[in-house]
Saccharopine dehydrogenase-like oxidoreductase (Albula goreensis), 432 residues
Amino acid sequence: MATISTSSSRPYHIIVFGASGFTGQFVVEEVARTTAEGPAGTLKWAIAGRSRPKLEKVLDQAAGALSKPELKSEVEIIVADVGEEESLAAMCKQGVIVLNCVGPYRFYGEPVVKACVENGTHCIDICGEPQFLEGMQLNYHNQAAEKGVYVIGSCGFDSIPADMGVLFTRDQFKGTLTAVESFLTISTGPEGGCIHDGTWQSAIYGFADSVKLRSLRKKFGYKPLPTVGSRIKRRSALFFSKEIDQYAVPFMGADPSVVKRTQRYLHEEHQESPVQYGAYAGVGGIASVVKLLFAGMLFWFMVKFSFGRNLLIKFPELFSFGVFSKEGPTKKQMEDSSFCFTFFGEGYTEGQDPMQGKPNAKIRTQVKGAEAGYVATPIAMVQAAITLLNEPKSLPKTGGVYSPGAAFAKTTLVDRLNKHGFQFSVVTGPEA
Ligand SMILES: NC(=O)c1ccc[n+]([C@@H]2O[C@H](COP(=O)([O-])OP(=O)(O)OC[C@H]3O[C@@H](n4cnc5c(N)ncnc54)[C@H](OP(=O)(O)O)[C@@H]3O)[C@@H](O)[C@H]2O)c1
């Protein structure tokens, strides 16, 4: 099998594609902060997108924000458009890895994956859309494997904390971990939190199309993963969680799909015992529950019709009660926000047969980090790229389309993230 060397003669280790987007601009800043972590202590990089003036502005802003005026002269700009195949090929040929920030991925993602695979370039994205992620695995895994290309999706807040968090919990457990439930809580400051319109649009089209995901999954023809240990109980659509002392709902994002893909890969490729997973998100008190129910029902109803979708897209702030906006969060909102995943794991201590009786041990871990969408996501994406560049021998033996946990289970990604503001930890003492 071919592999792509990080010491290849290509001019750039990393190309940030979609650098002019709301998220892309923060990925650019994060790459600029991280250049000393590239192979042999240097990182060669460029930014790309469809509008040169916008990309120049991004470099200008990053130069100001980081007090690095040299960015304006040293970082090259590549003009490439998703709709122009040759421009994507020309971009891909110049880089070892493309960090793809152009979304919604269901509309713009596939041509980038295709161009990366055809031109021997690794591809990392921050997609949170299971249909796109699983579709790329179905359609490009074999071709990527032949080319030695790693296509690693969902390397942002969706779904590195959840996916690597389950693996961290398993690695810290002394015995066989059989099930994990995660509870996500988001903290915001006095001005509240906000998510940019790009993610709102991805969510709208994702929900509208959820039926197709079921038929896509059938095409894999997978056997069900074996259930090791007691079967995990599915919680109801809304419940009071004693674990986090607030109301909680099943987490609607990509995490369950991504974690399951990782567990399947590790079971099938490395014969590791699969961990069952349930993902939940804290909602808060009763007032928040009422607001969520109202917004949720309205969203559920409107997303089914193109007229409704158009209204949702036109007025994100109105229909999301201010959670999403076309402007995105302010600097202050980002500074004051943080996330915390708490993982409640159970399993069987060493010497206990997980196929007999009830689990006899528990573990509690946490993954904490700064604001999820535009601080933690760029860090996770860039550290995924740095890991890919520096630890090629610890990646899966062949290229392919992988979840983050499948790609990085044997690497030091968790340690790298811990050095960049994430905190993966075991909760000990009476709280555990
Ligand atoms: N995993 C996570 O936790 C996480 C966090 C944040 C964001 N995201 C995802 O990241 C994606 C981007 O979000 P965002 O809020 O940054 O969106 P955005 O601000 O709308 O950015 C979209 C980017 O795509 C570019 N683009 C659009 N069409 C293009 C084309 N034909 N050719 C080349 N570039 C094109 C835009 O270029 P122009 O500037 O020229 O228009 C812009 O740079 C979304 O899918 C979002 O869900 C995920």
Remarks:
- Residues 18, 20-24, 49-51, 54, 81-83, 101-105, 108, 126, 128, 156-158, 196, 198-199, 202, 373, 377 surround NAP (CB under 6 Å).
- The radius of gyration is 21 Å.
